[in-house]
Amino acid sequence: MGTHRNWIFGPWMLLFLLQLAGASHVVHRSLEAEQEPGSVPASIVSPLLRTGYHFQPPRNWINGPLYYKGWYHLFYQYNPKGAVWGNIVWAHSVSRDLINWIALEPAIKPDIPSDQYGCWSGSATILPDGTPAILYTGIDRPNINYQVQNIAFPKNKSDPLLREWVKPGYNPVASPEPGMNATQFRDPTTAWYADGHWRMLVGGLKGARRGLAYLYRSRDFKTWVRAKHPLHSALTGMWECPDFFPVQVSGQNGLDTSETSPKYILKNSLDLTRYDYYTVGTYNNVTEKYVPDNPSGDYHRLRYDYGNFYASKTFFDPVKHRRILLGWANESDSVTHDKAKGWAGIHAIPRKIWLEPSGKQLLQWPIEEVETLRGKPVSISNKVVKAGQHLEVTGLGTYQADVEVSFEVSGLEKAEAFDPAFADDAEKLCGIKGADVKGGVGPFGLWVLASSGLEEKTSIFFRVFKNGHGKKPVVLMCADPTKSSLTPDLYKPTFAGFVDTDISTGKISLRSLIDRSVVESFGAGGKTCILSRVYPSIAIGDKAHLYVFNNGEADIKVSHLTAWEMKKPLMNGA
Questions:
Q1: Mind listing the pLDDT tens digit for each residue in 327-348?
Q2: CB atoms < 10 A from the CB of 424, how many?
Q3: pLDDT digits over 101-131, tens only?
Q4: Residue in 476, 471, 468, 470 with CA at minimum distance from that of residue 442
Q5: Domain holding 490: CATH number?
Q6: Domain around 423
Q7: Which range is the signal sequence, renumbered to this chain (predicted)?
Q8: Cβ contacts of 17 within 8 Å, gap of 6 or more
Q9: Are 474 and 442 in contact (CB under 8 A)?
Q10: Does residue 47 lie within any of the structural domains?
């Protein structure tokens, strides 16, 4: 989630894209929500803060794809009665392009003994005969969150919209065994097939700290048996929403879950930190073990997103042969504000992901379909922004925009020295050296959703540090929303990640998707990504401005910038 506040809660997104070879879908369950007394008048929560092109239902609280017979399906946990956790059903929307969405009737509700007290996260798999199957966690006992794994199938496979689902009488298909923590046993993955067996993972917790991915096998997709050893484990706390998939070692195409590759990704959502971490590694189909390439950095170095992004899921899109990542972003205001707004929770723009040529990390980029929303563009080229100066980008509405900018950096000798004490804590470094703290090379980047007098601004920026003789400079990327709003009592955390790039070439790029109350940013071609939720009180609608700024000693050149107004897609009837 990118937050450390218990009351900022949400369901895990049910990302559920079925595909002809194997599908992925995640449904988010709740975190504990602290109900806040009092209320906020709706008049002080501007409707213009509701996102324009990010996925949301028409109203109320959400969290949660599958590609089937020409349609992408998005199932997500949704409260039809209010903008808080409770009364959860699996709502259902469909799309031809992952951008324009049509809402259908809810697909799954708690209605059998093994899910009567809740339907939580799950995933989807396409069986060899083309049948979609959903594996999901059910709660079968009151007041204890005793977790079991269930299965559901479409009532009518010929219906491309998959409007009805049925649950066979042999549910549950996997239950906690003696010695297992039954309240920390959830979120089955997309299954994969090899050597006569289907396999799936279920997230779990052993003892107080060991998160693990339980491995289950089945010959018939009906009877599942737990393997003696987990696929992998680490001392990180509970593993939620695990995801496991192969990646190509070169090129940008994705692989279906049942295909094999020298490289695999194992991702887990860590309950203790509310962040999504992943490792790159190898998988032995015989020993059924996964080994990270960098075990010393196991689950602490690589994240999909260094901001407000949690409970994500990938799926293989068979149409364009790509793997797509979807994640969920909760609100950063209060439950009281959510009730006043009438909605809470969004999905990030779907991202294409692939292995970076070095093999050390994934690259991410917004899917190409989002570019169909681009309208009026404005471009700037070869503009130098001197120390302490800023440049406004005018001529378009910037409260709902897509901005791509390439910077040329000179004067690297002016960079500050890097303190190795921050080597594993970019977020802390950004909190100390925010956008208004002058530096040598940087901070430089964008002020988005800014007011004309700069009383409000959200800063997306880079800062460069010297890193000792013979080492490449350290590049820090930050999202600093500390001045994003004059509204009191908002949670406005800084987010940051290091960018593994060689800026001694003098070049670095930034892309930001700006959408009223969310900013998604992609540094250096998608090496580092940060999503931030913000709630301006002045910089709303046509009163929002966009600037390039430089608060460092070294001059920065905007070699090229293009900004587009973004049109609204069809969004569930909203």
A1: 988 777 667 776 666 656 788 9
A2: 11
A3: 999 988 888 999 999 988 888 888 989 999 9
A4: 476
A5: 2.60.120.560
A6: 374-566
A7: 1-23
A8: 23, 24, 25, 65, 66, 67, 72, 73, 74, 124, 315, 317, 324, 326
A9: no
A10: no
